[in-house]
Task: structure prediction
Amino acid sequence: MNYFRIMLIALSVLSINIGTAQGVFDEWKTIDDRTGKPKGVIKIYKQDGKMYGKIIKILEEGKEDVKCTKCEGDLKDKPVLGMTIIDAAELHEDGEWKGKKLFDPEQAMTFRCKIWLNPDNPDELKVRGYLSFIYRTQTWLRVKD
Result:
């Protein structure tokens, strides 16, 4: 009886760790695909069954308080820190999240997006932005404590 209880607890702990390590809902360090340098940290979360992503930290030195000067409308001159950059992406059968709003505050442009975990490394998130038939993919890295 004691052996069974210990095994059950061990399996529960293991399944919690595996589930957490492989999920998309976490904090991710963005890496500039042109320079290879870290830019910020995005918190990806689920709300009402949809995916959202918010900038929670800016890693570029000297840009911690940057404002969205190229933005228009309500976002004009607003702090980039705290901005929602992924808005209402939906899960598809293939395990990919797809949406119509991936916002790049540096360019003040909105792209369609596709987001998925790297099948070979669950600590890498692939984030692809589309503009017409042209696309660009970045690899974001899971933030570890």
User: Anything to note?
Assistant: The longest strand covers residues 121-131.
